[in-house]
Amino acid sequence: MEKKYTDFMDEISSDELYEGLLAYGLFAEKLPPLFTSVSFFHYCKTVSAPFAAVWNDYITFRVMRNISIPRLMGIPNPFKYQKLCSLLRDNWNELRAHFHAQTDGQSYRVSRIHIRKKHNEKRIFEMNYSNWRTDGNPELDLLIHNVGKSNDSSRVARRFIVQTDISTCFPSIYTHSIPWALVGKKRAKETSRDDSCWYNKIDQACSAMRNGETHGLLIGPHTSNLLSEIILTVVDKKLYDKGYRYTRNIDDYDCYVGSHDEAQRFLQDLEQALREFDLPLNHRKTKIIELPIGIEKNWKHQLSDLPKVGTSGMVEYPQVNTFIDTALSLATETGDFAIINYAIKKLKGAQLSDNGKKLAAKRFMHMAALYPYLLHLMEEYVFTPYEVNTSDIKSLSEIIYYDAVKLNNYESLCYAIYFAIRFDFTLEKFENDYHNALDYVIKSVDCLLLTTTWVYFMKQNHWNRRASRVKPLHEAAKNLKNTDMDRYWLFCYEALSQGNLSDRWKAMKKAGVSFIRKEIIDGTTTANTDIE
After folding, report:
1. Which stretch of 71-85, 196-210, 465-479 has the lowest confidence by average pLDDT?
2. pLDDT tens sequence across 411-422
3. Which of 96, 143, 381, 400 is a Cys-bridge partner for 416, taking CB atoms 3.0 to 4.6 Å apart?
4. Which pTM value belongs to this model?
5. DSSP H helical ranges for 278-353
6. Does residue 144 carry a pLDDT above 90?
7. Within 13 Å, how many C-alpha atoms sit on residue 322's CB side?
8. Please, are residues 400 and 416 in contact by the beta-carbon 8 Å criterion?
9. DSSP string across 107-168
10. How far is CA 152 from CA 236, 258, 313, in A?
């Protein structure tokens, strides 16, 4: 049976919320899995006095999306992030009451992607969920059934689907609108100068993470999803109460209507509801699609029966090839390269023959070389399940490195270097001309590239070589610490010794806290090592 929205919220205790957000939600999923805040979470439990209430800037980085447009994401100052997480924990009862008030009257769960307790995991958020037992499939019911009390227009067959989203959702969220959603705009404005109000404290913590700016939430930290849900569940209630039946994935809407006129009314009502929170509707991406053609052409339906299982009871080479060809054809036809992401994840769950695994690995690695936005999927969905040889991972990384330098694609460079760290090999294109390569990294002034390169050198076994190569990075870190610590805190903190740091950074370094996963540096690869 599909669980209600508040069932998920009520399962999470305030302490579980705090740990999930702080220990596992500081670094975005799209980053190389090199970073962690678990050590910082445990350190925070030992600190008696709260961290200083000052504004801080944040690390920025770009992530290429499957539409070939980069998205600017952020990593907040850890002390500011801890402050926000602690406020959400301390006011979790009030926040759950808010979600109850906005969603309890709904017969199905409108919002599909949100925080939730996960089996045997302390992390409480990810971008995609696929547990049909708890998530259900309301889309089919919305097509042919009356779902809950509704107006007359929804008692007819749904003939159209309206697809739209919020334009630059997180960067458009006004932090003052969080209190508007929690207690109403009138009360929020009347108490806006009262710093003792719990909802104003959350507002202030959000702006403090962005150097005092009140427009925009950072894309990346998991707190941003919870904060956006505070606002968007209010919008959902207004639209649901008007009789509209739709699903929402973060800021993407799929509304099922009986006529073109109703589709237009939904867009008008959605735009009006969003405008109350100063959020803009994305008219450029809005579509009204006639059914059932829209459903029949949905690429998930076309891929749902693939790949076929062969006579051996496994998915063999030809079936793997057909599945990947079909996914590529659909991606090219629709221009939606999220289909490739879906195909990679779906195939991991299938029982592949040895030849099928080899084919899948080679084809997906080739795609990753062509479409770098797939790189974040390689380790979990390709290298590990298909037992890819380290020599093949190395070859892919060399290609990625070469292409990324030509295009100044720092995200891809980070992944090429991360794979070398993770699977314990050296990048020849880096090593053969490391003076120029290191100079390139330093001049990039990219925090994540600097940090990843520092880790790459620190993992090298030869002490003299390691010391000589780390020294220029150490000097770069000292310069950045003196000029722009906020925007380079991760690199400066990891690369500098305790004596080069001050105040809270020094105390934390003395306590042995690191934001680099220890097992990545100390552990050994699980891939087949055939490189000498």
Report:
1. 465-479
2. 999 999 999 999
3. 400
4. 0.92
5. 293-296, 299-303, 317-334, 338-348
6. no
7. 13
8. yes
9. SS-SB-S----BTTBS----S----HHHH--HHHHHHHS--SS--GGGGS---EEEEEEBTT
10. 19, 10, 50
